[in-house]
Model the fold of this input.
Amino acid sequence: MLFLITIAVVVVAYANGANSNFKGVASLFGSGSTSYRTAVIWAAVTTAAGCVAAMYLSVGLLKTFSGKGLVPEALIAQPLFLFAVSAGAGVTGLLATRFGFPVSTTHVLTGTLLGAGWIAGEVNVEALWGGFIKPLLLSPVLAVVAGAVIYLVLKMLRLAPDHRTRTLDALHFLSAGAVCFARGMNDTPKMAALLLGVGWLHGSTGMIMIAVAMAAGGLISAKQVAETLAHKITDMNPGQGFAANLATALLVTTANVSGLPVSTTHVSVGALLGIGIATRQAKWHTVIPVLTAWVVTLPLSALVAAVLFLLGRFLFP
Done:
């Protein structure tokens, strides 16, 4: 079972990399500032750096996603529960990536914790609202507002031109790297927490393993989600892309330091959408299905985890 849990966590990390690594560099590719290959490599390198930083700076998220307070501590130590949570998250993440939907790993993991928790024992509803649901609901709204406001301010200050310049390209690359760094720091402890309950590969070893799997997923399987993020949410020029990255990096980094489980997906897409609304270029025919996928993600992952937990009880009584 320990081996199965480890494999499942690696799958979650791979799916996370495939679905989420490109979120930070989508504006680079979408605005024509760089090629897909350069963007995806820059995403892998800066995300890996964020994973390393998470070993020292994201202890709060590690505790949150261990499940303590949400489900009984005795349940967290059960290998079957951890397998259902991690395998359910892996399956849901891979399905979303296959169909090109940029979903939230935070939503997925919250759903699998709930699904397996409700089948296995008691779920602390108060902890669910305050520690998980409220930050997840607020973050996309804040991101939409921040994306629009930051773009309009930068535009007014002539720091977000419509065309590429050397200075803008440098700032754009740095802001994209900052988003990927913040995402790596935000998501790594959420997955490493799955290894804590059984004392297997915890600490820096587990995070390094997750960092490698995330980098591999982003390099190999990011193409479909990249297309959605770069070209199907809104049209953007280099200045708009830079503003979206700046808004995302500020919000996600603040959440990391505060130990709040916000979704980088929600923040990144929200910032892009905010700029799309401000410029009247938002592509609602794509945005609406993406938002629908966000709503479906949590109950779907909960259902998958619940089924896996019940199946595990039958196979390993």
